[in-house]
Amino acid sequence: MEPVENAATVRYADAAGLPDALRGADILFVWDFLSTAVPDAWPSADRLRWLHIASAGVDPVMFPELRDSDVVLTNSRGVFDNPIAEYVLGLVIAFAKDFAGSLDLQRAGTWRHRETERVGGKRALIVGTGPIGRSIARMLTAAGLKVAGVGRRAREGDPDFGAVHASDDLAEHIGWADYVVAVAPLTEKTKGLFDRRVFAAMKPTARFINVGRGELVVTDDLIDALRADEVAGAALDVFETEPLPAESPLWTMDNVLLSPHMSGDVVGWKDTLAELFVANFEKWLAGERLDNVVDKKLGYVPMGAEPR
Q1: What percent of the chain is modeled with pLDDT above 90?
Q2: Is 172 among the residues known to form the active site?
Q3: Active-site residue 242, yes or no?
Q4: Nearest to residue 240, comparing CAs of 213, 264, 258?
Q5: Which residue is catalytic, options 172, 242, 282, 288?
Q6: pLDDT, tens digit, for every residue of 230-275?
Q7: Active site residue 247
C-alpha cells in the first residue's frame, strides 16, 4: 500500500470504526471481503466515488444503496482464476483415484488393492462462464475431460466450453456430466440454483464441486441427495454459513470433501490482491479507465467489458 499512502490520506479501519473512516473518503478498499460492515456504514459515505473489493465475488457489497448509487464498483477478477482451476483439477483427480480412501486405509494399516477411475474422457459441466470458469474449463480439457458450460444465455461454439446452456435449463443438462462444478457469481438469479430438483437430475455416479458461493446451494437438499445416493460425492469449499457449523452432517459424510474457503488462496495471494488495487489506484489518479468494473445490475464484470 506504500504507493497509495504516498499519494493519498489513507485511513485503516475495522468494522466498528468504518463509519468514521468513511466520512469524506473518495475511495473505499474492502480488504475483508467477507465483512458485512459496509451496508451499515453506508450513510457515512458522503463523497465516495469508487469502491474496490479484494475478491472476485461482490455479493457482500451488493446492497440496494450501492447498486442505486453512482459509486463505481470494481473487483479483483483475475487473481484467483488459475489457483481455483488447479484446485478443481486436484479434486477431480482425488475423487477419481480415491485418495481419501487410500489415506483412510493407510491410517488403519490396511493393504487393500482397488481399481480407480479414469479422468480422461469424463464429462464436466461448469456452471459459471466467467474468467474462473473458463480457466477451469481449459485445465480440465487439458487433463482429457470433455467440458460444457452453463451461463445466462445458451450459445454454441464457445472457445472454452463449446456448448453453453442457459442456467434456466440446468436440470435438463446436468445429467450429462460426471462432474458438476459450481463457480457462478451469487446473484438473485443464482441463489439456491442447486436445489432438490437439480440434484435429482444428476447422474447417481456424478460428483458435485462448489468453489463459487455457498448460497448457490440449498445445503439440506444436497445432504438429502448424498444420503439417497442421487449424487455420488461432493467437494465443498464454500458454505451457506461459514465457518461450517460443528453440527452439520457434512463433517462426517464419507463421500464429502470439505475445505475452509481456500480454493483460490495460494502463497502470495494477499500481496497480489494489494498490487491489483494499487495498479487501479494509479489509473484513478491519472484519470484513466479502471479495470474490473462491475455491472451492478448483473453483479459481476461482463465478459469483454472495456476498462472504465
Answers
A1: 97
A2: no
A3: yes
A4: 213
A5: 242
A6: 999 999 999 999 999 999 999 999 999 999 999 999 999 999 999 9
A7: no
